[in-house]
Amino acid sequence: VDSMKKVRTLFFAALRDYVGVRSVELQMPMQTDVAGLKALLIEKFPVLRGLMGHMLISVNHEYVFDDAIVPEDAEVALFPPVSGG
Prior knowledge:
Number of strands: 5
Distance between the termini: 50 Å
Radius of gyration: 12 Å
Shape: globular
Strand order of the largest sheet: 2-1-5-3-4
Number of helices: 2
């Protein structure tokens, strides 16, 4: 039984500049939630550590919270914090 899932993560706007890539494919345990995904991304891209609490995250085009389970083959999108005006 394969207990890992593959997830494609896309970086938008300034985040793309910070991490230096448009997208990354990650392998993670099946029950990984958004909080776990964030931890994996911080491990891979330490520059995200200070930003992670402020960014918007969508899974398959729907905004999600940290406790949402990330489905297999999901498309996860990370958006930088929106500055107020």
